Design the sequence.
């Protein structure tokens, strides 16, 4: 399988999941500004959406969107415990988290990468993000991970988005439980492997 990624982008999430599951993937780096691959070819020809991640299966089929890709990867290795069994209430709870992260954290936080953000727009976005982080902090109270004591694909996704705090100047100090959670996930050996492979840590 091939994972098209950009260092530190949301594609870090399926990268982490693949390593946690023990799935070998061929990393394909994408220059998102130029929409080019390392060999100079046009990334839009691979993914017309123009963004990452994209997972290309060995049979040539392609999947996009983080919640879909991470569940696909987890389902290839069900014994990993990275996603509960399909059809169970726990699986729907996982999907609930994945959708919350995608729509409320990912999209809100992503606005800070827009160089035109400022003034009232920036403040409104910060206020909205603060409310979502308040909710996240409450849900993490007394838990190791989002689903309880077991690390799942939702944690890989949440960690990836929380990792943007330093890049965007969002201070997580207001949420000590979230800071501790982020550090806990960061300390996982497979997470460290992914971060090093993308050049995000030494």
Sequence:
């Amino acid at each position: 399988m091939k994972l098209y990624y950009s260092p530190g982008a949301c594609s870090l999430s399926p990268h982490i999941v693949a390593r946690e599951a023990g799935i070998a993937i061929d990393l394909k780096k994408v220059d998102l500004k130029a929409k080019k691959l390392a060999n100079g070819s046009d990334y839009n020809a691979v993914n017309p959406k123009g963004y990452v991640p994209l997972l290309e299966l060995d049979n040539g089929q392609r999947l996009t969107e983080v919640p879909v890709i991470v569940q696909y990867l987890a389902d290839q290795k069900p014994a990993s415990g990275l996603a509960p069994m399909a059809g169970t209430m726990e699986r729907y709870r996982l999907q609930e988290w994945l959708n919350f992260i995608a729509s409320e954290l990912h999209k809100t936080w992503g606005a800070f990468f827009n160089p035109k953000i400022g003034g009232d727009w920036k403040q409104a976005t910060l206020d909205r993000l603060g409310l979502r982080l308040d909710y996240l902090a409450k849900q993490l109270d007394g838990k190791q991970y989002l689903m309880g004591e077991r690390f799942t694909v939702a944690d890989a996704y949440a960690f990836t988005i929380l990792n943007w705090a330093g890049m965007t100047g969002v201070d997580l100090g207001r949420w000590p439980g979230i800071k501790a959670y982020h550090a806990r996930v960061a300390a996982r050996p497979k997470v460290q492997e992914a971060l090093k492979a993308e050049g995000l840590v030494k």
Q: What stands out?
A: The first helix runs from residue 12 to 21.
